[in-house]
C-alpha cells in the first residue's frame, strides 16, 4: 500500500528540532569540557542537591493535595463568578515570578499583612525567608495549574454517570469513590510529576526567598559560583548535576504515569446530585474562598503598593522596560518560527518519541543552557554583548514544550479534516500553510505567542548571568531595587511589569480569538 503524501514537508520541522537539540547539546558539551578532573562537590553543594529534591517534592505534594478539594468545589458548584475564577486560575502561570514574590512578601513579609495582624494580637512574627518561603511561593504558582488539570479531568466524566448516581441515591463519599477517584488516579500522578520537574528548575523564587546553606537550590548554587566566585569549573559541574537530576525526574515521571482512559457519553450536561446537602456546600465554599484569597491577595497587595510607587520609578527603569519588550518580541518570533514547523511535523508523523524531544526545554534549565553558552562565547568575545540574544533564544526554548502542546491537537484536526481536500486541489507546503493551516490555527498561535511573550517578559534567569550595569531587563532592575531596599520603587516596577505581561498576553490572545469569533 502506497504511503500517503504529506501535505507539508517534514524537513522544516526536523530542522527546527535539530536547532533545539543542537543549542542544548552545544551548551552540554561546553560545560563538559570545562569540568576539571578531580572537581568534586563540597558539603554545601550536596546540601543544595538534597534541598532541591526535597523542596520540589513538598511543593508538588502540597500543590496537588490542596488542588483536589478546590477542584472538587469548582466541579460541584456554579456561581456568578465561576467562569471568571476558573480563568484567574491560569493567571499565576503567566505572572512574572518576581512580581508574585513581591506580592507574597507584602502578605507574609516582615511588614506584611499577616505579621501586622499577628503584632496587633500580641503574637510573634513569622519569617517568609527560607525553605518554607520557597515552598509557599511554589504552591502559589503551581496549585492553580494542578487545580485546572484535575478539574478538566473530572469534567470528562459523562453526565449519565452522575444521573445514575443521583437515581441510586449515592452519598457524596460514594460518588467520590465510584466516579471521581478513578479519574483522580489518572490525573494526579501527571500533575505531580509536571510540578515536581518545574520546581526542580526554579531559580527566581530561590534567589529572592531562599539563600543560606539550608535553602539553596542547585540553580542558585550555579548562580553563586558564577557571579560571586567566577568559578566556571564548579558552575559546570553543578550544571551537569542539575541536568542529571531533572533528566532522571522526567524519565521517572514518564515511567510511572498511568495510561489515561477516556470515557464516552452522550454529551449531557453534568448535574451533581451530591452537592445539595449543607455539609458539602459549606466545605466547597470554604475551599473556593480560601483558594481565591490565597491567589488574589498577593496581586491586590502589589497593585495597592505599586500604584503610588509608579511616581517613584528611577530613570533606569525605562531603558530596562524597552529591553524587556525587545527580548519578549524576539522570543515570541523565535517561538513561532520553531513551534509551527515542529507541530506540523509531529501532526503528520506516527513516531511518538519525536514529541519527547520538545521536553528538552523543561529538562535543561535556563541557567544550565546560559552557563554553557557563556562558556562557548567567553574565549572569543564578551558574553555581555550576547546577553539579550541568548536570553531571547533560551526563553523561546523554555516556552516551546507548552506551545507545541497548544498547537498539536488543532494541527492534527486540520490535517484530518482538510488533508485529502488539499491534496486533491494540489495544495502543498507554502500554499497549504497560507490557505489552510494558518487561518485555522490563528487562535492557538495567538495563545501560544501571548504565553511566550508574558513568560519572556517576566523571566529572571539567563540575564542574571550575563547582565552588567548597562544591560538589564525590567525584572532584573526590579530585583536590584528590592536588593537596595527601595520597596516603593520596586512595587511601582512590579505594577508596570504586571501590566506589560498581561497586556502582551491579551493583545496576542485577542488577535487570535478575534479571527475565530469573526
Overview in brief:
With 518 residues, this protein is an all-alpha fold. The chain is built from 22 helices and no strands.
Give the arrangement of secondary structure elements.
Blueprint: H1 11-34, H2 43-76, H3 82-88, H4 91-94, H5 97-108, H6 113-120, H7 131-154, H8 159-168, H9 172-200, H10 204-209, H11 218-227, H12 232-256, H13 278-309, H14 317-348, H15 352-355, H16 360-363, H17 366-377, H18 387-424, H19 430-457, H20 462-466, H21 474-483, H22 487-517
Helix pairs in contact: 1-12, 1-14, 1-17, 2-7, 2-9, 2-13, 5-13, 7-9, 9-12, 11-12, 12-17, 13-22, 14-18, 14-19, 14-21, 17-18, 18-19, 19-22, 21-22
Provide the domain count: 1
Low-confidence stretches: 259-270
Class of secondary structure makeup: mainly alpha
Q: What is the CATH topology assignment?
A: MetI-like fold
At the fourth CATH level, what is the homologous superfamily? MetI-like
**How does the major sheet shape up?**
none
Report the span from N to C terminus.
42 Å
Beta-strand level of the residues, as a percent range? under 5%
Mean pLDDT: 77
Explain what the structure shows.
Helix 1 (11-34) packs across helix 12 (232-256) and helix 1 (11-34) crosses helix 14 (317-348). It is built from 22 helices and no strands. It has 518 residues and is mainly alpha-helical.
Amino acid at each position: 500500500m502506497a504511503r500517503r503524501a504529506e501535505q507539508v514537508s517534514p524537513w522544516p520541522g526536523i530542522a527546527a528540532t535539530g536547532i533545539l537539540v543542537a543549542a542544548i547539546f552545544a551548551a552540554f558539551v561546553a560545560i563538559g569540557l570545562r569540568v576539571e578532573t578531580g572537581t568534586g562537590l563540597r558539603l554545601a553543594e550536596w546540601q543544595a542537591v538534597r534541598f532541591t529534591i526535597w523542596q520540589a517534592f513538598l511543593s508538588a505534594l502540597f500543590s496537588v493535595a490542596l488542588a483536589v478539594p478546590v477542584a472538587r468545589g469548582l466541579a460541584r458548584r456554579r456561581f456568578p463568578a465561576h467562569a471568571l475564577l476558573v480563568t484567574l486560575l491560569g493567571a499565576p502561570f503567566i505572572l512574572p515570578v518576581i512580581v508574585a514574590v513581591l506580592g507574597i512578601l507584602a502578605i507574609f513579609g516582615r511588614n506584611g499583612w499577616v505579621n501586622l495582624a499577628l503584632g496587633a494580637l500580641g503574637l510573634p512574627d513569622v519569617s517568609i525567608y527560607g525553605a518554607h518561603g520557597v515552598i509557599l511561593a511554589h504552591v502559589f504558582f503551581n496549585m492553580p495549574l494542578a487545580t485546572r488539570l484535575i478539574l478538566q479531568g473530572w469534567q470528562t466524566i459523562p453526565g449519565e454517570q452522575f444521573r445514575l448516581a443521583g437515581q441510586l441515591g449515592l452519598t457524596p463519599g460514594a460518588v467520590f469513590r465510584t466516579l471521581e477517584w478513578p479519574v483522580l488516579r489518572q490525573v494526579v500522578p501527571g500533575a505531580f510529576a509536571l510540578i515536581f520537574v518545574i520546581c526542580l528548575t526554579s531559580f527566581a523564587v530561590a534567589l529572592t526567598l531562599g539563600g543560606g546553606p539550608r535553602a539553596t537550590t542547585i540553580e542558585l548554587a550555579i548562580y553563586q559560583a558564577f557571579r560571586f566566585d567566577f568559578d566556571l569549573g564548579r558552575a559546570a559541574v553543578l550544571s551537569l548535576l542539575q541536568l542529571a537530576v531533572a533528566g532522571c525526574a522526567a524519565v521517572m515521571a514518564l515511567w510511572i504515569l498511568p495510561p489515561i482512559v477516556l470515557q464516552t457519553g452522550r454529551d449531557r450536561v453534568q448535574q451533581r446530585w451530591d452537592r445539595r446537602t449543607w455539609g458539602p456546600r459549606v466545605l466547597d465554599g470554604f475551599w473556593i474562598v480560601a483558594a481565591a484569597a490565597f491567589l488574589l491577595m498577593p496581586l491586590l497587595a502589589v497593585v495597592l503598593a505599586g500604584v503610588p510607587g509608579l511616581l517613584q520609578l528611577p530613570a533606569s527603569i525605562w531603558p530596562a522596560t524597552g529591553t524587556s519588550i525587545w527580548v519578549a518580541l524576539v522570543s515570541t518570533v523565535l517561538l513561532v518560527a520553531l513551534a509551527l514547523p515542529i507541530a506540523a511535523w509531529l501532526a503528520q508523523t506516527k513516531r511518538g518519541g519525536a514529541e519527547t524531544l520538545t521536553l528538552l526545554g523543561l529538562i535543561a534549565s535556563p541557567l544550565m543552557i546560559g552557563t554553557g553558552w557563556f562558556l562557548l562565547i567567553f574565549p572569543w568575545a564578551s558574553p555581555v554583548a550576547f546577553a539579550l540574544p541568548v536570553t531571547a533564544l533560551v526563553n523561546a526554548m523554555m516556552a516551546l514544550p507548552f506551545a507545541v502542546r497548544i498547537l498539536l491537537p488543532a494541527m492534527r484536526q486540520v490535517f484530518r479534516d482538510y488533508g485529502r481536500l488539499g491534496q486533491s486541489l494540489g495544495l502543498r507546503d507554502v500554499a497549504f500553510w497560507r490557505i489552510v493551516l494558518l487561518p485555522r490555527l490563528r487562535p492557538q498561535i495567538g495563545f501560544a505567542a501571548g504565553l511566550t511573550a508574558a513568560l519572556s517578559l517576566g523571566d529572571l534567569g539567563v540575564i542574571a548571568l550575563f547582565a552588567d550595569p548597562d544591560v538589564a531587563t525590567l525584572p532584573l532592575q526590579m530585583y536590584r531595587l528590592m536588593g537596595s531596599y527601595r520597596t516603593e520603587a520596586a512595587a511601582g516596577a512590579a505594577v508596570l511589569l504586571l501590566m506589560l505581561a498581561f497586556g502582551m498576553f491579551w493583545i496576542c490572545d485577542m488577535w487570535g480569538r478575534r479571527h475565530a469569533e469573526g
